[in-house]
Amino acid sequence: MERIRRAAHAGSWYTDNGKKLDEDLERWLLATHLTKSPDVRGVIAPHAAYSYSGRCAAFAFANIDPESIERVFLLGPSHHYYTPRCALTRATIYSTPLGDLQVDTQVNDELKATGKFELMDLHVDEAEHSMEMHLPYLAKVFHGYPVKVVPILVGALNTENEAMYGQLLAKYVDNPKNFFSVSSDFCHWGSRFNYTYYDKEHGPIYKFIEALDHLGMDIIETGDTNAFKQYLKDYGNTICGRHPISIFLHMLKNCSAKIKIGFVQYEQSSQCKSARDSSVSYASAAAKLDD
Q1: 180 with 60: CB under 8 angstroms?
Q2: Which domain of life is it from (predicted)?
Q3: What is the mean pLDDT of the chain?
Q4: What is the model's pTM?
Q5: d(C-alpha 251, C-alpha 279), whole Å
């Protein structure tokens, strides 16, 4: 029996009108002027409402060549549900206004059999937006292709578990039929996010945020998991997908394929100029085979 995860954020975080959604995504994808590449094996993309981050996310998903990809692993942070582990879905279908995406139940069962994952209830699954915001783009890019998804909700992991999950998932990177969609926004700045760190040397607040984010992005591009951990410790940057990103870095470190992450777009929801302001940063990256 099919168990359907509804597109719970359609109609609020993005339009539930399939035609309008398709047009929006098409426009944003075309505006990137990027070329699809079979060498791109994964992306890091934001997960805010499309009015904020839809345009930036296009710079990740426009890189995808759907021809030889059979499954997409989704790694998204848990915003509302606490777990010190990673969780798998109980659903068999992830619904979007652009059509349904089938869950790869075989790989899901394979991961479940390791004993390292918990199962999330459907209400937890539907309440979480971090993976859902990638789904319409995946449904759009893979339209007409029989792709399946493997959603992994990433909890509040310690350093050891980030490494453990990275090692466990690394073998899937070596199969070129697998693709990885890592969900994260970058700095959440302002008193409503309990983060107001500011170094005046960089000029206005928004320029400091940009410098802070780019420092983190540069470290992510090196693939150095320890340096990324140290950066988060030093600056406390509120990168909500830090655990999925860390797992992905460990996966790339432990797989045989040589894959390098490169950021292609950076944006902010607004420009912070005073302590009363707030903003969220968005960054898109492509993880590409490095010959």
Answers
A1: no
A2: Eukaryota
A3: 98
A4: 0.98
A5: 31
